[in-house]
Design goal:
Elements: E1 278-281, E2 286-290, E3 296-298, E4 309-311, E5 319-321
Antiparallel strand pairs: 1-2, 2-3, 4-5
Length: 332
């Protein structure tokens, strides 16, 4: 050993080694000049409840625009990690790294040409990263100016996994909210697998008889926007643009116009092809048909108010046909 400083008095509060300087150089230097040395340049160990090392910087002079060196600088020019923290004492409930910051910047600033932060957790129910904010701000707020990359990329390789899962417990809270100030979508769901769903809304109220909505489209009271739009862009597709499947006892499709000043059609259908405008079917047959030329076929009876019918012809005036029930005549 080149030197050893010991205090053998168990009740002593003195310092074993103190190095101080009033000059402009370092107070101490620990160097290893042997390239084959695998030991540490400086080791600090304690079996007590205090800190193994304390670094304190008390220089508060100057302006915040001045260059201020950090309290601790780790300058790594090797292939090893710049800093490694190992805390494997399982009964401990404290964090491996605890940062308490009261400035106006950020508590931890990471700059990297590759990945910024990699967090790994081996716990089955543990989280690799947990972010909390109970003061009204964001728990996580990412920024990105990439043209084709998202600010957040979530990927799950499990067969039944979920890429992004948002859970709210507030009575009026929103799990996921998307806001776009451009002509692009606020929320974009893309499915690349066969038979999948781009966006799924699932109503699962807690009690029998409760009502919830799987998907709702709305506009505000001044917007001219369209609450819902379905577009099929494949001219060769034989699929449905909108398909309603109802296994309940309620109405499958309902149109309700609540504006008393609305003079537009409640239902408007336009067909530029040669197919039928309307085809209404029961379980077995086609019962009501409106062809593209306007010809209408009804399999059942067409009843008008008062059991009276009106017949119109394209090349004649309107004819009113009324069926009159005659009294029974009994011959003498």
């Amino acid at each position: 050993k080149a030197g050893e400083f010991d205090i053998t008095n168990n009740t002593s509060t003195n310092t074993s080694l103190k190095v101080a300087t009033t000059g402009l150089g370092k107070a101490g230097t620990f160097d290893i000049t042997n390239a084959s040395n695998f030991d540490a340049s400086l080791t600090s160990t304690t079996v007590g409840r205090g800190r193994a090392a304390t670094f304190t910087k008390n220089n508060t002079t100057g302006s915040i625009s001045d260059i201020h060196e950090p309290c601790v600088l780790i300058d790594n020019n090797s292939k090893g990690a710049a800093l490694r923290v190992t805390s494997l004492h399982s009964p401990s409930a404290n964090a491996a790294v605890d940062v308490n910051y009261g400035g106006d910047a950020v508590a931890v600033n990471v700059a990297s040409v590759k990945g910024g932060i990699l967090a790994t957790s081996t716990g089955a129910t543990a989280s690799a990263i947990t972010a909390q904010n109970y003061q009204g701000g964001y728990a996580i707020k990412p920024y990105s100016n990439a043209s084709s990359q998202g600010a957040i990329h979530a990927e799950n390789s499990n067969m039944f996994g979920i890429g992004v899962k948002a859970v709210t417990t507030g009575s009026q809270s929103t799990a996921i909210e998307g806001t776009a100030n451009t002509a692009g979508p606020a929320v974009d769901g893309i499915i690349t697998g066969n038979g999948g769903v781009g966006i799924r809304g699932y109503a699962n109220p807690p009690n029998f008889g409760d009502i919830a909505y799987g998907v709702r489209g709305e506009t505000n009271s001044t917007s001219w926007g369209i609450p819902g739009q379905f577009i099929s862009n494949c001219p060769e597709a034989l699929t449905n643009t909108l398909w309603l499947i109802d296994n309940s006892k309620g109405q499958t499709f309902r149109v309700q116009v609540n504006n008393d000043l609305n003079a537009s059609e409640a239902i408007y259908a336009r067909h530029d092809g040669t197919g039928k405008l309307i085809s209404l079917n029961n379980a077995n047959d086609e019962m009501f048909v409106v062809n593209n030329n306007g010809n209408t076929t009804v399999e059942g009876s067409l009843t008008v108010k008062g059991n009276k019918g009106i017949v119109r012809s394209s090349n004649a005036t309107q004819m009113r046909v009324e069926t009159v029930t005659s009294p029974a005549i009994v011959s003498a």
